[in-house]
Amino acid sequence: MSLDINVDFLEMKNKSLLSRFLIWRVKNIKERQFVLLLSFLVGLVSGLAALLLKNAIHFTHHFLTHRLHVDSANLLYLAYPAIGILLTVLFVKFFVKDNIGHGVSRILYAISKKNSQIKSHNNYSSIIASTLTIGFGGSVGAEAPVVLTGASIGSNLARLFHMNYKIVTLMIGCGAAGAIGGIFKAPMAGMIFTLEVLMLDLTMASLIPLLISSITGASVTYFFMGKAVLLSYDVTTPFVINNIPYYIILGVFAGLVSLYFTRFSMYLESIFGKITNCYRKMVVGGILLGIMIFLFPPLYGEGYNTIQSLLNGNHTDLVNNSIFYFLKDNYWLLLGYVVLVIGFKVIASTVTTGSGGVGGIFAPSLFLGAVAGFFVARVINGFNFIKLSESNFTLIGMAGMMAGVMHAPLTAIFLIVEITGGYALFVPIMITATIAYLTIMYFEPHSIYTKRLAKRGELITHNKDKAVLTLMKMGKVIETDLKRVNPNATLGELVKIISHSQRNIFPVVDEDEKLLGIVLLDDIRDIMFSPEMYDDTYVWSLMIMPPAILDVDAPMDKVMRKFEETGAWNLPVVQDEKYLGFVSKAKIFNVYRRVLVHFSDE
Fold this sequence. Notes:
By secondary structure, this protein is mainly alpha-helical. The chain folds into 3 domains: about 1-225, Clc chloride channel; about 240-460, Clc chloride channel (Orthogonal Bundle); about 465-600, CBS-domain, CATH 3.10.580. It has helices at about 1-30, 30-65, 75-95, 105-115, 125-135, 145-160, 165-185, 185-195, 205-225, 245-275, 280-295, 305-310, 330-355, 360-380, 390-405, 410-420, 425-445, 450-455, 465-470, 490-500, 520-525, 540, 555-565, 585-600, and strands at about 480, 505-510, 515-520, 550, 570-575, 580-585. The radius of gyration is 29 Å and the shape is elongated. Keywords: CBS domain, Chloride, Chloride channel, Ion channel, Ion transport, Membrane, Transmembrane, Transmembrane helix, Transport. It is found in: Membrane.
């Protein structure tokens, strides 16, 4: 009993301290200054989270694999991924009790549909789950989980200090920028990722906090890990302008592989989604993943070791620990092996997340880009009419693949330059990233992050009209003051209802609350003053069907499209065929103006 009293007392005391701080802050610190302080704090914590996750994965990976044989197959590759997925599923099911997959998509959904509120367990749950998944060989990346972690830190800190929606959203961006800056030591890429992928508006009000967070996150990693970049590379073969056609070819190839990644991964996800039993899903995924990694060891984990080997020119490392080790000196058969690695990497990544693992597509995109770049250069070199740097193409391919998969060419360009130090190849990186982006945009207008949300009309974009419509909720614009009438009511009863109404539309609803039609005042004006018709004229004979019927869950842009198509000013809203109320175009415009002012206010 005394323990409960002490806990309650401490909670009250903490709330009191917070309230006193908030009052002091309002009196002494301007909001703009406080936002800058908050962005520093968010960047600091996000950078520490990135540091923790990266090291946890590294030590787990090293502990499990440092004694494996290089020149032969290793049966442990069959077991490790399944064990990792099992541990992840158990952790999520019994401790988290929430879906924490698809980190970036969940952030975008929170911004558009959850008032930028992200559950507090995301401050740590993605770190633990992705460590178990990736450390044991799951073929995904750590970046999306740490981005979700950073975004959650930003959201929860901002809400702790009672910030409004716009600042909470900005702090989500700051958390993501700090996480990317921290895990890659790439502050520019962290800021650009937030603007390009999370689609925050670029204004001075947002630019400075994002810069502060991304620089702080990167500085944390530099402080603890030194100046070494994620992928070290010295450009020994400079950019030659005559090679531009080959960079264009690489861009097209990267765009097509990006399309394969996006389309096929979503197809595989839909298959796994049909398996309702999480343990069956885990067993199927664990077995498939183990077999793929046993056959193709480069698929194990994030794949940065393979990328570094290709950058160093050690292409034979692709077949290390593999039953295909004998291919290391066969030029063309090794290329066939590389094609299989590209094909199965997409499957391995999707199987990892589809079966219950937690991870993102950053690292798989970089891996695919590196292998694709190596493949293109090696194929061209095989014809002996020109000698291309396979290492350069490995680096440039990463930018092309990331630009294609994420639909984020600027993020790809700056990230690859920052994590490799490859500034001497800035021009070919830009060429390949741009071509890859244009190639996939021809086939797929939405990225792998946004495709699901765009289908449901839940995606915030840089188009302010669409963004504001996405933020609007149907429940805020439904009008319920219209008088309902029964289809069996007489004209006389309808006239009495009209006399007590200030509206000119009357929904006809049966005993089960189902909408049968509407009666318009203009349609009955000529007969409503004819008493001889009051008793033998019924509402069902007077009603008409509305031009369209809206579902309560319909996205607001589709609602506006219905108004434009029908020319109506009022439309009924139903839920499971049951009448809820009406939506008027005038009410939508009024709410739209208020949301637009709030959304655009700096």
